[in-house]
Amino acid sequence: QVQLEESGGGLVQAGGSLRLSCAASGSIFSFNPMRWYRQAPGKQRELVAVITSGGITNYAGSVKGRFTISRDNAKNSVYLQMNSLKPEDTAVYYCNADLSSAGLNYGTFWGQGTQVTVSS
Q1: 10 Å Cβ neighbour count for 6?
Q2: Is the peptide bond before 87 cis (omega within 30 degrees of 0)?
Q3: C-alpha 57, offset from chain centre
């Protein structure tokens, strides 16, 4: 059974930092790419950052220069280092990955989300 489990959310003051982690279980699978999304109250879910197994990254304009996505392929894990946090970064953050194995695609899987709250 495949699971993606996020951790590291919490409450932080504006200007502070948090590091989110997401561990994917299911060692027979390749998780590529891996992504972070977020959803603020009353807003649509948005893509925050994405990283391929080769380390190619891309960021939403609103977080570029403040957030850094990284991954550990051996651990099937992805991380999001968030610096200079702003109140508008408050949201539930979700980990997401495309799964494949032996050349077959198994779709996209989501974690349950972790709350990040930035106080002003």
Answers
A1: 22
A2: no
A3: 12
List Cβ neighbours of 106 (8 Å cut-off, separation of 6 or more).
2, 29, 99, 100
Q: Cα torsion at 118, 94, 67, 116 (round to 10°)?
A: 10
> What DSSP state is assigned to residue 73?
G
Count the neighbouring beta carbons within 10 Å of the beta carbon of residue 91.
22
Q: Which two tokens stand for residue 36?
A: 């972070």
What six digits make up the tokens of 28?
């027979």
Q: What is the pLDDT of residues 2-11, one digit of tens each?
A: 899 999 999 9
pLDDT tens per residue, range 36-54: 999 999 999 999 999 999 9
